[in-house]
Amino acid sequence: MLKANKLRAQLTAAVPWLKQNPDNLWVGIRKGTLVSTGELSPAFEYRYQLEILVLDYPGDLDFLSTVILAWARVHQPDLIFNPDKRAREISFMADILANRCADILYSMPTDEAVTVDTLANGKSAFVHHDEPDYAALMGIDRTAWDWEVVATMDGTPDDESNE
């Protein structure tokens, strides 16, 4: 799945602890449905609950949440820009462990369009589509659109935190 793979890549790139501990990150799909477009072409959509489980995370929940929201802004923007969805669709649970770590589960509805092209040799090619580049479509400067995670943030707690 395109979006699940992109989320895993973004989390691993942005959170140094996950880069060092990739076995503590699980990205999975639950409650999926397959939706046909009803058109002549065999195009379809996957609609599913995307889940992200981070085990024994010693870092800052705020940092991890910001990375996930930044991913959603680009790859599932309805969860950010639709007022009804942003108020209730991205959920999380955390199990605070005795060793100052937490097991954290995020869950969000996700959809992914797939078109089927016929190649010259008659075989089918399946093309997974990400969301359109809404910033470009609206003429918005990319620097104003993207949420860049501040380079000095590494997701680890510091002595000045409010915990």
Automatic annotation (TrEMBL):
Cross-referenced InterPro entries, in alphabetical order?
Phage_tail_completion_R
The organism sits in which domain of life? Bacteria
Pfam families the record matches: P2_Phage_GpR (PF06891)
Q: What is this protein called?
A: Phage tail protein
